[in-house]
Structure formats: structure tokens, C-alpha cells
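Researcher: Please generate the 3D structure of the following complex. Treat every line as part of one assembly.
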Amino acid sequence: MQRIPLLAGNWKMFPTLAEATELARGISTPAIPAGRQVMLAPPAPYLHGVGEILRESGVILASQNICWEAKGAFTGEISPTMLKEAGGTMAIVGHSERRQIFGETDKMVNTRLLGALQHDIIPILCIGETLEEREKEQTLAILEGQLLKGLTNVPNHSRSKIIVAYEPVWAIGTGKTATSKQAQEAHAFIRTALADIFDKTIAEQIRILYGGSVNPTTVDELMAEPDVDGALVGGAALQTDSFLRIINYTA
Ligand code: PEP
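Model: Done. Output below.
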């Protein structure tokens, strides 16, 4: 099964408007290597402006979170229809910063994921264990639980569109990348769990990204693993040169 590699940049709450504009121009100007997809998730206030820059470039626009409702009294939320108006087609859900800092539960993450799908937005479901959970050898149980709860009630026709990002919390923003062997082990487990939750055919179609301090030095080895279908990149996506190097990883 051919899964199109996706190189995704999450700018979090870092760039100024000027930096975001420069980054969006720098990333979207060179041609995307054949057979790959590139995605950028700017801070919400910049979605429209970055969307304008990315238009026609082939670079996918995403939001860093998404509300399940299109409109209404949801102060501070990002509406799926507003995202679409800005040109966005993907949304990150369940990022560990949302879970840990803002208290988002698996149930809420599931509601966001289902809402995204209902509005034709492709959700990128982030899952991952903390250092403490890894040390207690609970990694696989944590991943399985987050998948089961995050993927509850997904309609048949939407299942293969979902993207999963394995982001070990201990590797996010810490400079500690999981080894390619650790990433592959987790990704293979996730694919088996997806086959149990959905079925084998769907599991083979779902892309599983690795995220956690991915940088130009580690990307080639990670992308060589059979179940690593892309990368979700934070820090190294904030500089044009390093993210372009990641996009142009050597297969
Ligand atoms: C992320 O924000 O999803 C992430 C993986 O960040 P970093 O690459 O900085 O670890």
C-alpha cells in the first residue's frame, strides 16, 4: 500500500506575523518533491494570510486545533468552516500541549476529530506517552487507550482519511528524538491497533507521522522506517532552511 509521505510543520505560538509570512513564502516557493505532501499549521490569527501565500503552491494549510461546531458561542475556538474559508483542509487534534496545558481529554479530542471529519477537514490525531509512562513500560497501553478513545465512532467512509501522529511527550521540544528503532516499534504497534479498531485494509492506508524533535540530521533515518509515513515538526519547522531540508529528506 502506497502511503504519501507528509512533512508537517507546527509553528505553535512562536512566529511573529513578519516571520510567519517569510516562512510561508520560503517554504511554498520551491517545488514540493514529487510524491510528497507538505503541511503548515500557523497560529490561528495568521491562517488567512498564510493561506493566501500558500494558495496554488500545493502546500497544505492546517490549524493547530479545531472546534466541532461550525459557528456559535465558543470563545477562543477555531471553526472548521472558517478554517476552510482560509484555504485549510487539515487540523491537528490532541496535541500533547493541548492535553497537558489545557486539560483536553480523550473525549474532547474525539469530539474534535469527529467534528473535523464532518466538515471534510482531515484530522491529525496526536498520541504519545510521557517519560514516566515509558519508564513504567506503559507506552503501548497508553497508545492503545488514546487511539481507542480518540477514534470512537468514526464513520466507515472517513476512516482511511485520518492521520495519526506518534509524538512521545518526552521528545517534544526537548531535543531528544526517539531513535528510529523506537519510532518504528511504536508505529508498527499503532498500525496493529488500528487494524483491531478498524480493519487491516484501513490500517494500511492510514498515515502515521512521527513527531518529537525531528531535525535535518534525524529525518532521513526516521523516514527510512517502513511504518513512518511522515513527520510532525515543531522547532525545526520555524526556520526555512531546516524545514526545506526535512521536506527534501533522502529516501
Ligand atoms: C510538535 O510540536 O508537535 C513537535 C514535535 O515539536 P518539536 O519538533 O519541537 O519537538
